Amino acid sequence: MPKSLVLLCLFLLFFSFPARVNAQDVTGPDSPDRPDVSSWTLVSSSNISVNVSDSVMYYLGFDLEFQNPNNPNERVRQIRMLIPFVVVKSKGLLDKNYADAAVAYVTDGTERALLKDYATKSDVILYIRWSIESDVSRGTKKLIGENEVWFWNASGEWVYGRNLRINKLMPSETFSGFGNYPIIVGVKYSLSRDIYNSTEVPYSFIFIALRATKGGK
Amino acid sequence: MMFNRLGYAFCLILICTLSLIGCVGKNQPKVSPDKVLAEQAKIEQAKRINGYLDRLRAGGCNGKEVKPAKGPFKDHRDKLFSSYGFFINKSGPYKQEEKIFKQCQSIKALDHFFEIFWSIRDPDINTPENENKELIDKRISEIKNEILRTDQEISGTLFVSNGGLRGDMAHVYLFRGNPHYKVKTLKTNRLADLMAWVYFDDNQRPMYVFLFYDKGSGFQLFRNYRGMDTVETLMETLKDLARIYPTSEEDYNRLYQELIDNDHEYIFRFAIRQFSYYLDIKLDKVLNPPTPESMTAKAIQPKILGIPDISKDIKMIMNENFAKIMGFSQITRNTSGEYGLRLIVSIAGIDWQDTRGRLKSVLDLSVSIMNEKTREKKNFACSLYIEMPADKHSKANFPITPNNVPNRESVMNGATLSEIFKTLPSGDYEVKIYLLDRTTLKSGIWYEYVTIGK
Q: Is residue A153 included in any domain, yes or no?
C-alpha cells in the first residue's frame, strides 16, 4: 500500500473526530462557576458503599453536604467518587471466640485510614446548590428559588442546569458459582441517557472476595 | 510539523495495534495466596515470633527457671503475674512466653519483659497510649476496687473472697469486662450458690454465659458441660453443683427442685447445658490467653482489594483525576455495514509509567453488549499495552479501536468484537464499555445505544 495512502488514512483517522484538548464547560458564558466549598462547614457525610454479603462490602464514594458559614441557609451537596475498594472480613472476625477488644480495632483501622485519604483524593462528579429558609407556619425548612446542578459527564465536560433531576441507578451482575441472584456492582448517576457518570468495582475483585469467603457464608 | 505529528500518530497507532494482536489477557489480580506464598507467609511469621521472643529474653530473662525466695523480687513477680498472668501464652506459637517469664532474674528483667510483652499488643502504634494495656489495667483497678460490691444484681460479691486477681471471676472479668447481665441464687441449702454472668452480642443473643458455683470455698467456673438430658448426666451435673453430696434419689430430687426454684429466668439451666447460644463458641477457647495478633486484630484483619500497589521506584505520570478516566465512546459502522467500537481518550487522561524516556500503560478493556429486550449479554475483554516516547506526552486525544483483537471471553462469545456484532440478532442494544488502568486502578465507563438490523 503506498505510503502516502497510509499517511492519508492515518490523517483522516486522527482528525476525523473533534480534538478536545481541554474539558470544556458546555454551559455557556453566563453559567456560574462550580461552588468552592473549601471553607464551608461539613454538616453531613455518608459513604457510598454496598454490602455484598456478611463478609464482603465495597466503597465507591462519598455523599457530602456543606453549609456556607457566611450564609447558613445556603447548602451544597457534593458527590465524590474514589477508586473502588473491597473489604473482605476474615472468618476469624466472624468467629465469636475472638470477639471483644480486638473487634474494636479490626474494621476501623485500615478502612478508616483509606477513607480518610480518599476524602480528598477523590473526584467530585456532582454539585447541587440550594438555599432554604424557615417556614414558620409549618415549623420546618423550605426551599428558596431553584436548585443549581453541576454534573461531570463521562466525557469530562461539566454540565450546568437548574432544577435538573439526578437519576441514580445501581447496576448489577450475576457471578457464576455464587447463586443466580444479582449483585450490585456500582453506581451510575445521570441526567439523561447521554449525560452520566458511572463507577463500578472491578468484577474480578468481587469474584475473588466471594470465593475467599465461600460466597459470604 | 504536520508530518512529524503524523509520524508520531503512526508510531503510536502501530504500537497499539501490534501489541493488541498479541493480547495476553491475564489480568486477574492475585490476592489469594498460592502454596508458595502461604509457605513464605509461614516462614515470615515464625521469624517475627522468634524475633519477639528474643527481645523478651534480651533484658535478663534467659537461662534457668528462677524460683525466687521471699523478698522484693518475689513480691514484684507475684504482683505482675497476678495482674497479667492470664495473658501469658502457655501454648501455641507463643508458648515460650511462660518459660521466658519464669527465667527472668531480676526486677529490671521483669519490667523489660512486660514492656516488650505489651508493646507487641499495642493495637495502634500511631497513638502514644497502648490501648489494650490501658483497658486491662482499668479492669485490674476495677477488680481491686471491688466494682461488684455495690452492683445492683449481685451486690456483696467480692473478688477478694473469690481468688482475687487469680480467681475465675477475675479471669473472666479481665478478658470480657463487666457483664451485660448478672444473676445469683438467693436461697439455696443443698445446692451450691450459683451466679451467672451473661454477655450478649449485637443481635441480643447470649454469646457467653459464664456459670460460677460456690460450695463454700469461693466461686469457681463451671466447666463440665455434659447437659441434663439423661438421668445419668443430670445426676452427675447435680453432684458437681451440690453443696451437700447427694446420696439418695430424694437428695437428687431436692437438689433439682432447688435449682428450679432459684431459676425463674431459666438462666442457670441454660448455662448448665451450654456455654453460648452459638454452639461453636467454647469456654476454653474464650478464656485462652489471646495471641498478640488477636489482641491487635492482626489475625482477623480484613483483606482489602483494590488498593493500587505502585512501587516507589517507578516513576509515574498521572492524569489530573484521582479515580476517573474520561473520554468519548462511539459505535461506528464502516462501508461494509460492520459495527465497531471506538473509544477516544486523551494521552494526558491516562496514567503512564515512565521507563527511561518511554511511557507505558496497561489497560483492561471490557465491553458488554446487552439486548435491551431479552437482556441477553455478549461480553468482550482484552488487555491493551500502550507505549510511546515520553516527549510525546500531551493533551491530544488518541483512539482505541479493539474491534479485531482476540476476545478473552471467547468461549461463549465471539472471537473478536467485530464478530460479536455480526452475530447479534436484530434489536436494540446497550453497549457498556469499561476501561481500567491495571496499575493505578483508575477507570472509565461509557454507554452507547445502537439499533442493529432494523
A: yes
- Chain B interface includes A217 (CB < 8 A): no
Q: Is A115 on the interface with B (CB under 8 A)?
A: no
DSSP-assigned beta bridge partners for residue A57:
A51, A87
What backbone torsions phi and psi does residue B173 show, to the nearest 5 degrees?
Answer: -65, -40
C-alpha–C-alpha distance, residues B182 and B107, integer Å: 39
DSSP string, B214-282: ESSS--EE------SSSHHHHHHHHHHTBSS---SHHHHHHHHHHHHHT-TTSHHHHHHH-S-SSTT--
Expressed as residue numbers, the domain containing A63 is: 31-164
For residue A60, tell me if it sits in a domain.
yes
Q: Where are the domains of chain B?
A: 45-120, 131-292, 310-452
Least confident of B253-262, B288-297, B323-332: B288-297
Q: Is the pLDDT of residue B163 over 80?
A: yes
Total count of domains within chain A: 1
Mutate to test the interface with A, among B130, B278, B300 (most CBs of A within 10 A): B300
- The reply to whether A44 falls in a domain is yes
d(CA B343, CA B132): 54
pLDDT for position A104: 47
Which tens digit of pLDDT belongs to each residue from B54-65? 999 998 998 888
Q: CA of B253: how far to CAs of A193, B36, B110, B239, in Å?
A: 78, 62, 53, 12
Q: B310-452: what CATH class?
A: mainly beta
Per-residue pLDDT band for B52 (boundaries 50, 70, 90) equals very high
A41-76 pLDDT, tens digit per residue, is: 999 999 999 998 878 889 999 999 999 999 999 999
Say if the Cβ atoms of B441 and A202 lie within 8 Å: yes
pLDDT single digits (tens) B78-89: 999 999 999 999
The alpha-helical segments, DSSP class H, found in B299-339 are none
Instruction: Note the Cα A169 to chain centre separation in Å.
Output: 11
Type of residue at B143 = I
Residues 237-296 of B with CB under 8 A from A: 276, 278, 280-282, 285-286, 290, 294-296
To 5 degrees, how large is the angle CA A172–CA A174–CA A176? 160
- The verdict on A49 touching B (C-beta cutoff 8 Å) is no
In the block, residue with C-alpha cell 448426666: B233
Which segments of A47-170 does DSSP mark as H helices, in order?
A: 91-94, 101-118
Q: What string of DSSP letters covers B19-46?
A: HHHT---------S--HHHHHHHHHHHH
Average pLDDT, chain B: 87
Nearest 5 degrees, angle CA B313-CA B317-CA B320?
Answer: 135
Please indicate, yes or no, if residue A2 is contained in any of the structural domains. no
Average pLDDT over residues B367-373: 95
Q: What is d(CA B197, CA B74) in angstroms, rounded to the nearest whole number? A: 34
Q: Which of A47-61, A71-85, B114-128 has the lowest mean pLDDT?
A: B114-128
